[in-house]
Design a protein that fits this description.
Blueprint: E1 15-19, H1 23-34, E2 38-43, H2 49-57, E3 61-64, H3 69-72, E4 77-80, H4 89-96, E5 101-102, H5 104-109, E6 115-120, H6 125-138, E7 143-147, H7 153-159, E8 164-168, H8 171-174, E9 184-187, H9 202-210, E10 221-225, H10 229-236, E11 243-247, E12 256-260, E13 263-267, E14 273-276, H11 285-300, H12 305-314, E15 323-328, E16 331-335, H13 342-350, E17 356-360, H14 373-379, E18 380-386, H15 391-397, E19 403-407, H16 410-420, E20 426-429, H17 442-454
Parallel strand pairs: 1-2, 1-4, 2-3, 4-5, 6-8, 6-9, 7-8, 9-10, 10-11, 16-20, 17-18, 17-20, 18-19
Antiparallel strand pairs: 12-13, 13-14, 15-16
Length: 456
């Protein structure tokens, strides 16, 4: 346990407590200090050295591996890390005494006049957020990237002066957002994920996702997928202040975006935007949706078609999301370690055009593998399990795949997959599970896989 004493502060200041000292928490603490709050940071776990050094440098008081209740419960307001669940004892006590508990996004949003482009969804949000940022930046806009991705939003609000922000927003963040408003809100899809935080009710999780539209007015935009069943269900029971802009690959839509003869068509202003899906940097059906969503944002902001086409054609995907690693003896190796749920793995398999040796497994969040069965039958010749307990994967696919092998390291998984594949095949790491049984996080899993592939 280490704590750093702040310079003495007058008692007249409002006291802000930040729970969780990761990227978002430390950024929020810095912004709060800049705005004259008395700040205290508390993390129930250990604080990474990088963040500890920053807090010390800024003379912000903090504690780790404990919560000093007297200090925390004296707060005027609390900024909570998205990872801390409502059932945590300290949160219950704060709720009981009606102390406002908000997210970093809510807090930082108070201190910027920038236009907010906010992207949520169960799958594809990091890719769509990154692509949208890429399109806007290449078009010359003064734009920041934050939320679940990149540097802390609060820290950027304190140190930069962007005109626009593209924010990747998770349901956990949305749960603690109240006054914040998205100028452009994007909801990509709603599929079961994190249900343990929502009483195992999909409608509770969906309600969380729809908070992306709260406080919007007729001057704002809500972009959503008209082919997503849960989104459509949610639309029926709600009214929206914003202008609605749906996208679909199944039907023609005006205004919005749709697919016509393998061309994306976006028609929200006088001048239509069209682009062949063959020219998109991101391939696969799910990426047509992601590209449509980003393209609609760009057209709302009246960006030039040529600039959009160029950006949508040259975008490099984020690390650990369908990332090409190498081709060895004619076998392609793809790192999709960021696929920590079944839907993400479904999207990855759906975009494969060759036979696949699939590396699956890890910490199973109550996965229903049934939705993968058809794609596994069509495309997967062997499954390599990477995790401590692979029984549910064996049970799910033993009738569909001839070979299912257990492995306990990224190196072993890569070597066995290489032997099971032949020229023209793809070895796909898309685990559908969290990584904490064998790895620090999905980045560590992806990095170890890439290192192992390069050693083959």
């Amino acid at each position: 346990m280490e704590s750093q004493q702040n310079i003495s502060t007058p008692n007249t200041q409002a006291k802000l407590v930040v729970l969780g000292a990761g990227e978002s928490g430390v950024g929020a603490a810095y912004l709060a200090q800049q705005k004259g709050f008395d700040v205290f940071v508390s993390d129930f776990g250990p604080i990474a050295d990088k963040y500890k050094a920053q807090l010390k440098q800024w003379n912000i008081r903090f504690e780790e591996q404990q919560h000093t209740e007297a200090e925390i419960l004296a707060a005027t307001e609390v900024v909570k890390s998205p990872g801390i669940p409502e059932k945590a004892p300290i949160i219950k006590k704060l709720r009981e005494q009606k102390t406002p508990v908000i997210s970093e996004i809510e807090f930082a949003g108070r201190y910027t006049e920038a236009k907010m482009i906010c992207i949520t969804g169960s799958n594809g949000k990091t890719t769509t957020t990154s692509l949208t940022y890429h399109i806007l930046k290449n078009a010359g806009l003064n734009v920041g990237l934050a939320g679940n991705i990149g540097n802390s939003f609060a820290y950027q609000v304190a140190t930069e002066s962007f005109d626009h922000y593209v924010l990747e927003i998770s349901s956990f963040m949305l749960d603690d957002m109240y006054e914040f408003k998205a100028d452009i809100a994007v909801l990509l899809n709603i599929t079961p994920d994190h249900l343990d935080r929502y009483d195992y009710k999909l409608e509770n999780y969906a309600a969380s996702k729809f908070r992306i539209t709260q406080n919007q007015t007729e001057h704002d935009y809500f972009i959503y997928c008209a082919d997503d069943a849960e989104t459509l269900k949610g639309l029926q029971s709600r009214t929206f202040g914003a202008q609605l802009l749906p996208f679909s690959i199944e039907k023609e839509i005006h205004p919005g975006a749709y697919l016509e003869n393998d061309n994306i068509v976006i028609n929200i202003h006088q001048e239509h935007f069209t682009m062949s899906i063959k020219d998109l940097a991101l391939q696969g059906k799910h990426n047509i949706y992601n590209s449509m969503a980003s393209g609609i944002v760009a057209k709302v902001l009246e960006l030039r078609n040529e600039s959009m086409r160029e950006s949508m054609g040259n975008f490099k995907n984020i690390e650990h999301r369908l990332e090409f690693v190498a081709k060895i003896s004619g076998i392609s190796f793809i790192n999709d370690s960021k696929a920590t749920n079944v839907n993400s793995t479904w999207y990855a398999l759906e975009s494969m055009t060759s036979d696949v040796v699939l590396i699956l497994g890890g910490v199973d969040k109550g996965n229903d593998y049934g939705m993968l069965k058809d794609l596994v039958k069509q495309k997967v010749k062997a499954i390599v399990c990477l995790g401590k307990d692979n029984k549910r994967i064996h049970d799910a696919f033993e009738d569909d795949v001839e070979v299912i092998v257990n492995t306990f390291s990224a190196q072993e998984a890569a070597q066995i997959a290489f032997h099971l594949a032949k020229k023209g095949d793809t070895v796909l790491l898309s685990p559908a599970c969290a990584s904490f049984d064998l790895f620090k996080n999905y980045e560590d899993r992806g990095q170890q896989f890439k290192d192992a592939v390069r050693e083959l």
